Amino acid sequence: MEKARFRHVLDLSKEEKRAFLDSFDMVMSDCDGVVWNFTGPIPGVDRALQLLKARGKRLAFISNNGMRTMDEYRQKFHELGVDEQDQDIVHPALTTVKYLKSVGMQDAVYCIATEVFKDYLRHAGFQVLDGPYDRLPDDRVANPVRIFTEYFQPSEPKVGAVLVDLDVNVSLAHLMKAKCYLERSPDCLLLAGATDYIVPLGTRMDIIGSGYFIEVLERATGRKALVLGKPGQALAEFIIEQFHVTHPERTLFIGDMLPQDMGFGTRCGFQKLLMLSGGTTKEMLFGHGMEHELPHYYADSFADFVQLYKDVED
User: Fold this and answer.
1) More confident position, 33 or 23
2) Which of 179, 190, 197, 253 sits most deeply, having the most CB atoms within 10 A of its CB?
């Protein structure tokens, strides 16, 4: 196998470690699989984050997870000893709100997402449609034309956007309803939040992500979704503006997924560090063939920063 162009941060020489730590002023990090997992904080992450801040690094967190509220994010960071402000936590629902406002959305938004996600849109003044929640008849005597007509009455408000994010209750009925809205109006936007195909919950379990359902709608409608989460261009533009990034090469982006996190880092022009503490194994990393989705460095977990500083400061 060809020798990898990326190296483990702890395999660098002392001079290389010092150069690496001096090469960035800001750390932007994913949360799930990097800062914490399904069972709690990843060991050593609290010491690492506190150490990075003490050494003058600015921290920001870019999440694709719309299942938590901002209050929950703040509390989790507080428990890690880093009291992050709202402007340093990028929540996918708030990014969606920002985008909808930027395009002057006045129509309703059909939303396949968590209640937390939908509530953020409602609180921002958008009319949110969801469902159906009733079971669709599937017996042989049912009239399918009548059934679908009942679900899509012309009296419903005009839908200007269909948004798909992680929703553990998604069904074929939701996807069919989204398809009907998109086909009813060529101006109806297809928006995607998280595009992950697999969402790891820990070392023993993962769940199917929204990426598959987004792909179903894209294929069924011939539309291409505008991705507002990682690794989308819209989010990249928001991030560059929000954090006033003028020298992207001085930002280190940390994540655990190759397409979403490393691909996003490439799009933004950031340095990239992959953590093996979440959804990507070492075997997956070294077997990956998409150049733009590969990191510059990799590490086992955030705890490696503690050892990095120890190595250069001894």
Assistant:
1) 23
2) 253
